[in-house]
Amino acid sequence: MKLLYFAWVRQKVGLAEEEIGLPEDVRDVAGLVAFLATRSPGHAAAFADPRQIRAAVNQDFAKPDQAVAAGDEVAFFPPVTGG
Amino acid sequence: MKLLYFAWVRQKVGLAEEEIGLPEDVRDVAGLVAFLATRSPGHAAAFADPRQIRAAVNQDFAKPDQAVAAGDEVAFFPPVTGG
Amino acid sequence: MAGPDIRVQEAPFDLGAESAALSQGRTDIGGLASFVGLCRADDGLAALVLEHYPGMTERALEKIAAEAWARWPLTGCTVIHRVGRLVPGAPIVLVLTASAHRAAALEACAFLIDWLKTSAPFWKREEFADGRERWVEAKASDDAAAARWASGA
Amino acid sequence: MAGPDIRVQEAPFDLGAESAALSQGRTDIGGLASFVGLCRADDGLAALVLEHYPGMTERALEKIAAEAWARWPLTGCTVIHRVGRLVPGAPIVLVLTASAHRAAALEACAFLIDWLKTSAPFWKREEFADGRERWVEAKASDDAAAARWASGA
Q: Residue C133 is part of which domain span?
């Protein structure tokens, strides 16, 4: 699975992107967030408050209960502030 | 009194402006319209339907009951269509 | 900027130049909204001839712009309305509003163009390719658009 | 015009040139509305750094613009959003809409900028003169502005 991080999520994780093997028991965005929070102190800091995190699966905004699969591109970021 | 005409009011009257002596019994815009309608066939055509006419007294939009005096500049025109 | 900049002129205007004039060298503007009204070639229109009431027209525009200036926290406001003979494709009117905040700029711009349509002494005559002429009639929809603002919408 | 023209770029844009590109040679446009968002120098801001999600950002802008295109009878629509490091006074975003009718152009322009604020993957980091940095937080007022359109207002 390809993971992308943006804004302060990227800064806290310390990576702009990474490839991971998706654990069998991770089925949705919320589960992926919980799993990622255990990967490193940086990940833990980035995902400490899941309410601050937004996600996109294959470049579409995704809710916490959206399903994820091994071939997906999943991105995590703060609420957007364009315009 | 200085009178100004615009758009089709000007075309029907056949004048862009004229100076008139204000009859004593003409006290407001509606009275002035009724008086002007008697001045010439052109005036009569222009002022045939007072509902189609708008007025300004001293360059402010004016209602039919607005008072007019000899020194005023009074303009007549159709509803505006700018923008 | 001391207040709104109002012009009634025959000459064309330049949106880019007017917008730059409002924003150049400033760092307090968050949003710049503009509206340009253009002459359409409906029904074989050859030209629009715009007539105005010199003196009163400028006063009416100043008054409308001063009202927008009082109602929204604007940092700049330019209104240019052309008169004379305009061919299809030609720009007729420019409204440009600047503010620290986007909503103020957008609302003031819409307010100004709605009021210009109903409250400024301009008259449009249409000249058609076949020689016909017709004075444009005021639209009830324009009155309704302007009235929205009066009711505080 | 086949549809909206969407660009995400580091380079500045030119309102006058973009507006001319939408209207030049056409006689079916009655109104051209635009909004330019600029970088303000609030609180000693030295620069805004705009990050985006290449690929998704363009898709999101295409989707928002296609929605505006479907909802209003537009004859042209240009959306340009800059990324990278922008100093106070620099233009950040341009929304330009053209239509036969002014209300459609004005409404589509306001709709697009409201949705851009809440639905396009951009993130702003503020850099201050004293070395501090801060990620801009999403505003509830922006969500409210975007939600207005969803309710059919």
A: 5-150
